[in-house]
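Worked example 2:
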Amino acid sequence: MLFRYLIIEALGVTVVLARGSEIDVGAQLPLNGERAGIQLDASKYLGADSNGSSSCHAHKHDTTTLLFSDHHHHDHHHPHIFDDSQTCPKVATELTPWPAGMSNRWTHIPRCTKIPDSDSASNAADRISPFCLFTSTEYRAGRGISIVSKPEIAKEISNLQAFNINAPDPIQDQPPPYEIKYVVGKGMGVIANRTIHRGERLFAHSVIAIYSNEAFLTRWSKEYGLRTKLMEEGVEQLPEESARLFHAMIGQHDAFNDVIGKLNVNTFGEEFGGEDHSIVVPETARMNHDCRPNAMYYFDRQTLVHYTQASRTIYAGEEITITYIDPLQSHEDRRAAIVRSWGFDCTCSLCTSPPITRDASDGRVSAINRLVELLRGVKYRLGEKEGIAPEEELGMVDTLMSLYEQERLYAHIADAYVYAARAYKRAGKLWDALRLGYKAEEAALIYDGPRHLAVSTMEALIEEVEEELKLVVDEEEGEEEA
């Protein structure tokens, strides 16, 4: 939701793009004629490396530029320009088996960049937790998973509900409602082969890999070789089919390392243990970008399953798309983010519309952002008994819903419905509050998933309003009438 967008903006993230397994399911072609992926991990490009592994080269010019992409938390950076006058000291070149051995969660003995000795460590850098590789080929009935992270975070992940589910992905019984076909000017895309209704599930796949963003280094860094080995072995240790799906993804055409190149442009950002990580879901990475998409995705952190659903009715022959960026930006800002991060010009219907149409859209987007800012403030002003008049608030939420509809932001409109349901309830217009509460609940299920706070909040509002409207029949009373 919009609140999440702002939080994620501070974290700086984007989305997914990949090539499929047996056929090319790549997305838009960049300006140089080759298909671009979704780049979303700033830490993979940072010259100043974290976790006690600073680059051993001095750099004369820092050319880092931050690009905020506001859906799913990652930064975009340009690499530093390094001065190669210094040379790196000798460091370990082989991974070390984790002393604790193998728990019942893992099918391979974990291997690490180093094993710290907290008792004899002479400085803080020596006491910093290493990065280790944890793999289970039995996870999800043989789909498998590899995790490259700090041991304590890997342990936290292994305690999630996902590791107690010995079943394959929750795929649909019937054939998928789409086909992978060539799209002029984009490469391969996902095309609907029948009418798909809003809220209908398109993809549901568990992750095959999780990588800590801090583990990514520039190739000038001291531990680059060791950490790259971890990531390569993470793929090699996966079951054959999952490894094949990984290698089928397209990577950066100029990547120094194939695995790193694929990870740089084919991962979603998520947080584990309070730290940013990148997850790999190859099948979900088949959709092209549109500034006004017809599909939306969310991630279930408990089951480690990534879901994609239709955000509006999609008709047979229509391409199924997601957005790679925060759509609530001006045309110029969206275009700059797409070109800079993925190397292609967006050719969606909005971006190729006449200038006067794009300008009108920019005006509506600006109004949406301003209204959301004002409506957020209502909560705090009400707490201080300085709230705005109910009539004014209702006018604001009505306008906000209309603007979202005009902008064709069919998933993101969940925010407007939530604001509207609360506003109408405060104004005592209970039937309208109930109508909008149900709309908000349905939209939040598509946009955020069933575990999100917005869903439970709207469920509670609906229950309260129905009780006030006396729509809830007491069970004992109902039995007596029967």
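Residues 355-383 form the longest helix (29 residues). Residues 267 and 280 are 5 Å apart (CA to CA).
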